[in-house]
Specification:
The complex is a heterodimer of chains A (282) and B (390).
Chain A (H helix, E strand, L loop, with lengths): L1 H4 L4 H18 L1 H24 L11 H4 L5 H10 L3 H19 L2 H6 L5 H34 L5 E2 L5 E2 L1 H32 L3 H20 L29 H27 L5
Antiparallel strand pairs in A: 1-2
Helix pairs in contact in A: 2-8, 3-5, 3-6, 3-8, 5-8, 6-8, 6-9, 6-10, 8-9, 9-10, 9-11
Chain B lengths: L5 H22 L10 H9 L5 E10 L23 E10 L6 E8 L2 E8 L2 E6 L4 E6 L2 H7 L4 H9 L1 H7 L3 E4 L3 E4 L2 E10 L6 E9 L5 E8 L7 E9 L16 E4 L10 E4 L6 E5 L3 H7 L13 H10 L4 H12 L2 E3 L2 E5 L4 E4 L4 E5 L3 H17 L11
Parallel strand pairs in B: 6-13
Antiparallel strand pairs in B: 1-2, 1-12, 2-3, 3-4, 4-5, 5-6, 7-9, 8-9, 9-10, 10-11, 11-12, 14-15, 15-19, 16-17, 17-18, 18-19
Helix pairs in contact in B: 4-5, 6-8
Chain lengths: 282, 390
Amino acid sequence: MRLRARPGTTRRRWGAIPSIELALTFRRRRNQLILAVLALLPVLVGTTIRVAGIGAGSGGTGMLNQVAGNGLFLVFASLALTVPLFLPVAVGAVAADQVAGDAADGTLRTVLAWPVGRSRLLAAKLLAAVAYAVAATFTVALSALATGAALFPMRDVTLLSGATIPLGAAFGRALLIALVVAGCMAGVAVIGLMISTLTDSPATALAGTVGLIVAAEIVGSVPQLGGLQPFLFSFDWLAFADLLRTPMYWGTITHSLWVQAAYAVICGSLAWARFTSRDLAV
Amino acid sequence: MRWRLLTPVVVTAAIMAVTTFSHALGASDSPTLPRISPIGLAQKVGKSQARAFSGNVRLSVDIGLPRLPKLGTDGGADPLRLLSGDHLIRVATDETDGEKRERVALLDTLSEYDVVRDDTDLWLWDSTRQVARHGSVDALTEALLAFASPAELARTFTGPAAIETALFDTAYSAHQTTRVAGRDCYVLQITPQVQGTTIGSVRVAVDAATSMPLSVAVYPTGSSKAAIRAEFESLSYSVDPAELRFTPPPRANVVEEATPDLPANPVRGAGKSWTAAVAIGGVDPDKVIAGLGTDSGRQKSAPEGAAAVLAALAGTPGTPLQSYLRMMMASGEKTPVGLVWSSRLVSLVFTPDQRLYAAFATPDALKATVAADEASSKAGDDAKAVGSHS
């Protein structure tokens, strides 16, 4: 074991496991493919708008309509299009594979033979899943930014409230929005990881995670279930648009991030309890 | 190590306990304030000192209309959605220099609808369709604007006119105190004591320092669930002047509204006390519904191919709302005075000569008011037919 061979370098030992997990997550061909697909979506939307010539007054409504007039809106529109389904499913699928995938192909037993506590191993896997969530969000945002800048004019941004702010300030808001969305997606990653610890089958973990996301979205769209909606992890995902108002409205976003945090703590503790106490003498 | 499985249970319980406790703490927060007589409090409301304020209002309306489904970007923010459901509204008002300037913004998912008023100048901004409508403030807009803010809504029930007409039909009490948006408030409870009204009670939280109403809840007769509740979530007695200015953004579709073809004073009162009705003349429902969601004055070609798919993805303007309103029109009950609708709080009568009456009254009480109003307007010719407006 190389890790044990250098007992003096504690910093290296602390960093080793997370970096191995990060590398495993980001080097896996399937995960790279998912990022590529996410990067392709804004390109597809942008090209369609450019080719079809959708613009103000052409019948559509909402943010897509403003993309032709301002490329930066492709960032907001792409996030609004991917946040309800594509992005959480991608993030959830990768997180759901973290433990169950290792258990299925037998590497989990090898990994557990390392001189590393299970808690630290789980923390490393959590870190990798959350990092992937952040990377997925920024992949969509940056690809949209590049596409928008290439195909459409970039200029001062008209906010939802009708006020116009300079492009530089609008970049700041776009960054804030990406961070808020990344926070919401990190919540999905923790939920996916929790489900991943419950089963040895990656397919079951994937189906469970995606099923949970879809179920939450359905409950969120039924007006009669209004009482439950503030407690859904998915309900306020689109609240990021509150940062495109004057003045910015933080109430819903703060609530949403607290809900994500509560889910993360509960699911994280569940994952920890399951992962550290489960019998792996298969 | 089975005990570890208890950890998530304990964590979940702790989170639930903390949220419940903090909610309970907020609810039972009743500051100690000097005693005040209920009538004194009601009169103070009419003389609120607040000339400028800005804040966010939570409005929840459940007057018994079917709820509109909230489907992604469908239609976007639209004032007609205020008829049911939960909403967040940003209010900013400044009348320190004599002119009334205000902004009322309906904050919806991914969209916003703003009404900006500078004295008599009026801008309506629809972010979904990028349309800025420019017109002048008429009586109808004035009445609609009054719906959005708790301060204005409360004056409907506690204003000088309301107290004058309803003094002998009403029980007032002011025993409780509460805290709204971090400010100490008296609670004024108003209980109508007349037959025929659908209002069981109205609770108004009045800022102890400024006499401004910060929260209004209207409870229908025999119900403990509010039909209308408007409450400031945050409030400041100052306004950023920039918020009250509106210049149409570049590349937006600017529509100059012709002065609407309405009678000189389309909104007036009929009847008196708690069953008093508001009458709006010259309402053509077909025209109103057809006008929703279309950019007036601009002929659009239907998008084709990929554009159509994207347009569908982005939402077709107004369609669910239009079909909803058509359904509502069709569901009215036909009676001798006109079409009648009633819900747990509001009754509506639409007369054959295109007048719309609305009141917090039972359908029978409203039908009687309408019949009396029509008789008096026939007898008293034109200007004499004025009921007391509450």
